[in-house]
Write a structure and sequence with these properties.
Length: 362
């Protein structure tokens, strides 16, 4: 959409009595907001789905303060508007109930993003959950699938990072205006996502954190994806709500089986009882779309810090695996430093850990 069109689109969505369904009916008739606003009350009165109050709002409503505020913020934060009539708008999202008429976007949505999988879960994952989202998320991203999630703590941020580590694409659907990164600790992650995908929101710029925004946000996460994969979460969690929305949208639902003694496994195990497909590796998801993982001719090593690189070289030199104590003896790192680095490298899928805390390269 060209910037000169922003004003009319913002005016259209700011009319309180016009919901998404009525706006879509109007767009089928008039093709653009500019054409809608050319008609007077008498001409619009022929449209039986519009009340007199709505017709008056269309004719008179300007909401100039809102529109000018949004135009200024769009410029300030380098955010674009994409309407439901445009090719860049996610194809699958157009077919959900009451899809957003306008999306605010930072970054780019590409045609290849129509092949997307949502990965969602708890904000407080177990180490098992972190390891599995990194492993499966990276493998899915390597095959060309786009990973979609919600930029939240825990599984969401791990899913985005897994896609980035694999050199793949990822899209974050936000529950605030795009001038606000929530949580703020993910500011750097958000910038990385923009370079390899997009941040998107249906909420106007300036929209702050509100609890009820996130269920609304979740329908977009599931709606723009072929399937939703739930890693961990309670039965009452937002991840389970996203899975329910996926089912309502006639999309696939996948779940990671977990230890019945952990509350984080409650949601996925419940979904499996209801018929969600059990996922223990990436191929369990890919095969649903007749897609096989490709064997790589060269091993792709995720990004590592300088210190992690030293540990990587240390393990490379040894034909057999090393214990934590052996690595302490052969390096300048303390046990605490090594433990932290080894956990990060395990989450990135660089190393494996076996019995008695012995480590080796994947």
């Amino acid at each position: 959409m060209e910037k000169k069109e922003y004003h009319d689109w913002l005016k259209l969505v700011s009319i309180n009595s016009l919901g998404p369904s009525k706006i879509q009916k109007l767009l089928k008739i008039f093709k653009s907001p500019k054409e809608i606003f050319k008609y007077d009350n008498k001409q619009l009165s022929n449209l039986t789905f519009l009340s007199k109050n709505t017709i008056n709002e269309i004719s008179k409503n300007e909401n100039n303060e809102f529109i000018e505020n949004q135009l200024n913020l769009l410029e300030k934060y380098n955010v674009r508007l994409v309407s439901i009539t445009e090719n860049e708008y996610p194809d699958l999202l157009k077919f959900i109930y009451n899809p957003p008429i306008l999306l605010y976007i930072k970054g780019n949505i590409l045609p290849r993003d129509s092949r997307a999988i949502a990965i969602v879960g708890t904000r407080k994952p177990t180490n098992y959950g972190k390891i599995m989202v990194q492993k499966i998320g990276r493998e899915i991203a390597k095959t060309g699938f786009t990973i979609v999630s919600g930029l939240a703590y825990g599984i969401d941020s791990c899913a985005h990072k897994a896609a980035l580590d694999a050199g793949g694409r990822t899209i974050a659907v936000c529950g605030t205006g795009l001038d606000i990164v929530y949580p703020s600790v993910h500011t750097v992650l958000a910038k990385d996502i923009i370079q390899s995908g997009a941040l998107i929101s249906e909420f106007p710029l300036g929209t702050k954190i509100e609890a009820w925004n996130f269920p609304t946000r979740n329908r977009i996460i599931s709606g723009m994806c072929k399937g939703t994969f739930v890693i961990e979460g309670k039965k009452t969690s937002g991840a389970l709500l996203t899975a329910k929305m996926a089912l309502d949208q006639n999309r696939d639902v996948f779940a990671l089986p977990g230890n019945v003694n952990y509350p984080q496994s409650e949601g996925p195990n419940y979904l499996i009882k209801l018929g969600a497909k059990i996922v223990t590796n990436a191929q369990d998801i890919l095969e649903e779309y007749h897609f096989k993982m490709q064997v790589e001719s060269e091993r792709i090593t995720p990004k590592m810090t300088k210190e992690e690189g030293e540990v990587y070289k240390l393990l490379q030199k040894n034909d057999k695996n090393l214990s934590l104590d052996e690595m302490v003896e052969q390096s300048d790192f303390s046990p605490a430093q090594l433990s932290a680095m080894l956990l990060n490298m395990e989450l990135k899928g660089i190393i494996n850990r076996g019995a008695q805390n012995r480590y080796w390269l994947v």
